[in-house]
Amino acid sequence: MIGFIKKYTLPIAILLGIVGYRWFGYFNFLTPYLIFAMLFLTFSKINYANLKPSWLHFWLIAIQLVLSVAVFHLLRPIDIIVSQGVMICVFCPTATAAAVITQKLRGNIEFVASYTLYVNLIMAVFIPLIYPVMHHNSADIGFTTLFLRIFSMIFPLLICPFLLAVVVRRFPKINSSIAKNSGTAFYIWSVALVIVIAKTTKYFVEYEGDGSSVVMLMSGALVVCLLQFFIGKIVGKRYGELIASGQALGQKNTIFAIWLANTYFNPVVAVGAGAYIIWQSIFNTVQIYLVETKKIN
């Protein structure tokens, strides 16, 4: 039974979130704490010397910026809400869980961890710059205000676990004990995923808006999800980072994306981010299954 759960952790988490959305959604307040613990465990294991910027970091960030603008202008003539929703799925920074999934896929967690730090900071500047173009009713929201709001989300959930891990690194015995249990981060993320999927499912069940926009947002989220994973893998393969590069570009911080959509756009826009978390979770489930299958065989 335990072996079955370990092998199919992500699909079990997805199913639990969907079936039990009425109950697990109430535990949403735990999500920040779970993410903090997950990142702290991950950062306790990595070699900080390998966090330095590289050309691959530069190319992935450039692709993310250019692709987000291109997607917005391509879809804008069709539907402004759909263009906003799909664009958010592209410029949304890398998920804090990307390094955890990368470790499960036997990829380079140092690269993903460093990319997550860099891209979150860059997007904190890029999003306030691009916001007036995406949303015409933005005169009351200045660059500084939006930047500080975004950074206030990034700092406690991303920077603080990193800083704490750096401090604990000064105590080798304690850090060694924590690092040995870093694999627990994957299961902490799975619990967080149950809660996030539950909240997303509840939103879809109770949604009463335009059905055509929902279909287009879900379809657009699927297309850009697969596109970013595969572009990341193609670019990363040239640098020997096929797995890490794919996760860095494709796995998104959808909690942040949903918050951004609900706070600064039409709530319908959040449908795209909600769909994205389902698509990326399914994609990650397939990847992990293939890796585990190769190991068994």
Q: For the report, how would you describe the main beta sheet? A: none
Please give the CATH class: Mainly Alpha
Ends apart, CA distance between termini: 20 Å
How much of the sequence lies in strands comes to: under 5%
Overall helicity: over 70%
How does this model look, in words?
The protein has a single domain, classed as Up-down Bundle (Na+/H+ antiporter like fold). The mean pLDDT is 85. The chain is globular, with a radius of gyration of 18 Å. It has helices spanning 2-7, 9-19, 21-24, 31-43, 55-75, 80-91, 98-104, 109-134, 143-168, 172-180, 184-206, 211-237, 242-250, 254-264, 270-296. Helix 4 (31-43) crosses helix 9. Helices cover 78% and strands 0% of the residues. It contains 15 helices and no strands. With 297 residues, the chain is mainly α. The two termini are 20 Å apart.
Lay out the secondary structure:
Blueprint: H1 2-7, H2 9-19, H3 21-24, H4 31-43, H5 55-75, H6 80-91, H7 98-104, H8 109-134, H9 143-168, H10 172-180, H11 184-206, H12 211-237, H13 242-250, H14 254-264, H15 270-296
Sum up the structure in keywords:
78% helix, 0% strand, 297 residues, 15 helices, mainly alpha, Na+/H+ antiporter like fold
Summarize the structure.
The chain has 297 residues and is mainly alpha-helical. It is built from 15 helices and no strands. Helix 5 runs antiparallel to helix 6 (80-91) and helix 8 (109-134) runs parallel beside helix 13 (242-250).
